[in-house]
Amino acid sequence: MSVAFDELIEPYRRELTAHCYRMLGSIHDAEDVVQETYLRAWRARDAYDASRASLRTWMYRIATNACLTARAGDARRPMPSGLVAAAEPLAPFVPGQEVTWLQPLPDALLNSDDPARTVIDRSSLRLAFVAALQHLSARQRAVLILRDVLDFSAAETAAIIDATVISVNSALRRARATMGASGALIDGEVAPDAEQRAVVERYLEAFAAADVDGLKRLLAEDVLMEMPPMLNWFTGRAGYTAFMEWVFTVNGDDWRTVPVAANGQPGFAAYVRDGDGYRLHTLQILDVGRDGITRNSVFLDQAVFTAFGLAPRLTTA
């Protein structure tokens, strides 16, 4: 194997992982496709023509088409709020086990200490944005990401997906209209980082203490909670606090939290007292706006727990 060729294409791995995640909505699928992309690139290395496309564009062509192949049948990964109508906060849980859900992306997979590597736009990885992408066809999704997230030209995008510039521009108009209607914009309003950290720290303190009033003070009025693989989701500060009162009544008031970062957003793993230790309960990813927490995406999926390397139990120490 040529060490020189490997060194040329390796710097694109993290940004290609982010690209494939946006396309597929699954970190496991994204990593598999990136692996396939590098294998295809290695096999086709002698066919690469630098006069026709940059190496980065060539790698994106391979990765995008691998994603489109992987999405045969146009399977999508929704979140409950994009799939079914809202439920009452205390309605019985309705499992959606037959649905293939969107998965969160650990920030650690994209971190790099090399300042020369491409900076990844974390705002385009936010859960609400990636969930909205799931409502596009696979080709519309590819066009929107290549044009609006990665800033490829219409001609470059057409070459990447084997289309005409006219069809790319048409697909982009339709995709932008769909995304605009969803309200999930790349540059959607979020609180400054310092404000987010302060709100999340207070939220974790209140959660660990089962302090419902403390949680309530940190919520936006129209806060949304969803809990895949359950179909249940609801909005509103009153419903959120009623649900949390039920959670603490059923599970007790002794909790531990472990901060995590996913999709460029803050979050935490929640552990509930279980015997002489604490059992992993949920992974929760938060959206923090200027008026407080606007969304809590709660995951109860072992595959997600594994992707984040979460310990199944914590000791009392």
Write the SSE topology.
Layout: H1 3-9, H2 13-24, H3 27-43, H4 55-70, H5 127-133, H6 138-149, H7 154-161, H8 165-182, H9 193-208, H10 212-216, E1 219-226, E2 233-235, H11 237-251, E3 255-262, E4 265-274, E5 277-289, E6 292-299, H12 302-307, E7 313-315
Parallel strand pairs: 1-6
Antiparallel strand pairs: 1-2, 3-4, 4-5, 5-6, 5-7
What can you tell me about this protein's structure?
Strands 1, 2, 3, 4, 5, 6 and 7 form a seven-stranded mixed sheet that branches. Helices cover 44% and strands 17% of the residues. The chain contains twelve helices and seven strands. The N and C termini lie far apart (49 Å). The chain folds into two domains: 3-71 and 91-107 and 121-182, PhyR, sigma-like (SL) domain (Butyryl-CoA Dehydrogenase, subunit A, domain 3); 193-315, Nuclear Transport Factor 2, Chain: A (Roll), CATH 3.10.450.50. The protein is an alpha+beta fold and 317 residues long.
Overview in brief:
The chain is α+β, with helices and mostly antiparallel strands.
Q: What order do the SSEs take from the amino end to the carboxyl end, as H and E?
A: HHHHHHHHHHEEHEEEEHE
Q: Just give the CATH class of the largest domain.
A: Mainly Alpha
CATH superfamily grouping of the largest domain? PhyR, sigma-like (SL) domain
Kindly state the percentage of residues in helix. Answer: 40-55%
How many domains is the backbone divided into? 2
Largest sheet: 7 strands, mixed
Q: Span from first to last CA?
A: 49 Å
Q: Which class best fits the helix and strand makeup?
A: alpha+beta
Which architecture of the largest domain per CATH? Answer: Up-down Bundle
| DSSP strand content | 15-25%
- What is the overall silhouette? globular
**Unreliable parts:** none
Total strand segments = 7
Radius of gyration computed on alpha carbons: 21 Å
- The third-level CATH topology of the largest domain is Butyryl-CoA Dehydrogenase, subunit A, domain 3
How many DSSP helices? Answer: 12
- What's the overall average pLDDT, rounded? 92
